[in-house]
Design brief:
Length: 527
């Protein structure tokens, strides 16, 4: 009888020694709703729960401004953004875990919906779209909304076009307004002072604005441009050596020492040693690039945020189906030897916009969002609890086919499966495992509940207790083949899971071969 062997495939650099390194990107075929756990292994992600419900008569939160001390939430009175808005201010209570909403009153002023906003001189300025052609501002200390009149000397046509901006940005004391392929800018010190000559035209629609590397960067659908110079009226404009433009202004984030954005075929980072050397690096693995290549991105529909070491990007693979939105997360590691990134996802909560609020007495910053499919008048908080707003998180991890002895065509008989996992005190999980050896399958249910630990101490006394790490052994029947893979699933409510790895007990079979189709060849070329 062949000698029994054991082999392990690790989800995070060690079945019995959990480490903090990220799992190799090619170790798994599927890792849905899974991230590296705090103490190693691949963990079921934390969920997203309701943070605040506004009154029932309000509509979907059309626009949230998180730049103010009290974040503003705009609700339209109808289904069209051109209509008037009701504005609420989010007031944080206690330690920021709960919040209250206060409707702002404006002495019968008609407040339009927001198309774009930017903070200038501690005031939030709003562009109101082509139908209104107005500029408004919100003064934080007085909590008032005011209409900003066009400054004398401005060009009426240029001012009106600028108010149709879908992106606003402040750079060198000027307000920039991006409307389609035109970039309007104000005079220094006055966002409402726009001359006829204060416009720069690009080859296609502008998709992002950001200051980086000593320049104002402008993204179009296909390219990035850098505007150098203190005086914008005679500045130097250069096209950067980058792979793609950003598909959305909402995906541009400063990540470590890079400017990261989502392009048409992947995620890129713009780096800068010197301003004139701005260039991009590809941060997408082959697996994640294939995901992006198959998407039809709607302009400015994808959104992203960088927080707690993770770059999160949310988009709809099928633009006609709002519920198809998914999130992918990238962990970036910047070292002296270069930049490495690892991707995890998809995460199946349909985030339509991210926000960071700083609230409560502790002043901590947390991630909040709005959803496209999750009803109306609701804001959600991320990484809280073990469910998605009361719905189960479907956790799936599937390994690549695994050759235990790495001898290619050798057959094995698999006897046992071992799974190393974390148990969570009073919380336990029942994890479904599907083991596939070539074309045979075994389905097993592993209960990762509290285990009794019993043993003998060095002086002979017995001890017992509870351990947060457990190895479960499951017997396999009728499992033979050259390769074996494991699929781990958990789709229960409020059940955390962290899987460190799986192991197998097996016996190798004899080598078998055939001479069929083999011919002798004279290497000297003689007959």
């Amino acid at each position: 009888m062949a000698k029994m062997r054991k082999a392990y495939t690790e989800f995070n650099k060690g079945l019995y020694e959990a480490k903090t390194e990220l799992a190799p990107d090619d170790a798994l075929v599927v890792a849905q709703n899974a991230i590296p756990g705090e103490d190693g292994g691949i963990a079921k992600c934390k969920g997203t729960v309701r943070f605040f419900n506004f009154s029932e008569e309000t509509s979907y939160p059309d626009y949230v401004v998180s730049d103010t001390r009290h974040p503003l939430v705009f609700f339209s009175k109808g289904n069209v953004l051109d209509e008037l808005a009701t504005v609420y201010s989010i007031v944080f209570l206690s330690s920021g875990e709960s919040a209250g909403g206060v409707a702002l009153e404006y002495e019968d002023l008609e407040i339009p919906m927001v198309y774009a906003h930017a903070v200038y001189d501690d005031k939030v300025y709003f562009a109101t779209g082509n139908s209104r052609e107005e500029l408004w501002k919100y003064v934080n200390h007085s909590r008032k909304m005011e209409k900003v009149p066009m400054t004398s000397g401005s060009n009426a046509n240029a001012f009106a076009a600028a108010m149709g901006a879908h992106i606003m940005y402040v750079y060198r004391e000027r307000m920039f307004y991006a409307n389609e392929y035109r970039l309007y800018f104000s005079e220094v010190g006055d966002p409402a002072y726009i001359k006829a000559t204060n416009v720069i035209k690009f080859e296609s629609d502008i998709t992002a604005l950001c200051e980086f590397g000593g320049a104002l960067l402008v993204s179009t659908v296909d390219n990035w441009y850098a505007i150098y110079g203190v005086d914008i009226t005679n500045a130097r404009i250069e096209r950067l050596t980058v792979h793609s433009g950003s598909v959305s202004c909402h995906t541009v984030c400063k990540v470590e020492n890079m400017l990261v954005f989502l392009g048409r075929d992947g995620v890129y980072g713009i780096t800068a040693v010197y301003p004139e050397m701005l260039s991009s690096v590809n941060l997408s693995s082959k697996k994640i690039s294939n995901v992006f290549n198959n998407c039809l991105f709607q302009t400015n529909d994808p959104v992203a945020i960088y927080k707690n070491g993770w770059y999160r990007v949310s988009f709809a693979p099928d633009p006609s189906d709002l519920s198809s939105r998914v999130e992918y997360r990238m962990r970036v590691d910047v070292t002296s030897s270069g930049i490495s990134s690892a991707w995890f996802g998809p995460f199946t909560h349909p985030v339509s916009r991210y926000y960071v609020f700083k609230g409560g007495f502790a002043g901590t910053k947390k991630i909040y969002s709005t959803y496209r499919k999750a009803g109306y008048n609701t804001i959600f908080q991320h990484d809280t609890g073990d469910n998605y707003d009361g719905e189960a998180i479907h956790f799936i991890v599937e390994t690549k086919p695994f050759d235990p002895m790495k001898q290619f065509m050798l057959n094995y008989r698999f006897r046992k499966l071992f799974i190393g996992a974390k148990q969570y005190d009073v919380k336990s999980s029942s994890t479904q495992l599907t083991v596939t050896a070539d074309y045979s399958k075994n389905a097993k249910l592993a209960s990762l509940d509290e285990s009794l630990v019993y043993g003998e101490g060095i002086w002979g006394e017995a001890f017992w207790g509870w351990s947060d790490f457990v190895v479960k052994e499951l017997r396999l029947t009728g499992m033979q083949g050259k390769r074996i893979k494991v699929r781990v699933e958990n789709n229960a409510l409020d059940e955390p899971v962290t899987i460190y790895g799986v192991g197998f007990e097996f016996s190798p079979r004899r080598y078998r071969g055939s001479r069929e189709g083999v011919e002798e060849v004279d290497i000297n070329g003689e007959d």
